Amino acid sequence: MNIGISEKDRKAIAKGLSHLLADTYTLYLTTHNFHWNVTGPMFNTLHTMFMGQYTELWNAVDPIAERIRALGHTAPGSYADFGKLSSLPDAPSKPPKALDMVAILVKGHESVAAKARSLFPLVDKASDEPTADLLTQRIALHEQTAWMLRSLLEE
Length: 155
Fold this sequence. Notes:
With 155 residues, this protein is mostly helical. It has one domain: Up-down Bundle (Ferritin), CATH 1.20.1260.10. It contains 6 helices and no strands. It has helices at 7-37, 43-70, 79-85, 98-118, 120-125, 129-153. The relative contact order is 0.18.
C-alpha cells in the first residue's frame, strides 16, 4: 500500500481511530438506551433530543470504520472488541433519572471530543488530511452536543 503515509503511521492512526470508533459506538448505545428509557417532565424534549443524537452517532461510526479500512487495517466491530477499546463506561443497567442521563451524556461527548483531539499530533505529523478532516468534524459535533446538553443542567 502506497498512499503517502508510512505503515507505522497508518497502523498507529488506525489504532487511535479504533478507540474512537469504540467510544462513538458506546456513546451511541448509551444515548439510544436513554432515548428508550427516559421518563419524567422532560420526557418529550429529551426523547426527541436523544433520538437526534443517537442517529448522528449511528451515522458517524461508518465513516470512522471506513477510514480505518482505507488506511489498510481491519475495523473492530464486535461488542467484545468495543468493550476492550472503549474508554467510556457502559450504560447503567438501571436507567438513571433524566438529568443524570444528561450529565452522563455530557461526560461522554466531552470524552469522545478529547479522544479525537488527542489523535491530531500523529495525524498532522503523517500529513493524513482525510483523517484530520474526519476528526475536526467529530470534535465540533461532540463539543456542540456537550454544550447543548450542559445547558439543560443549568438553573
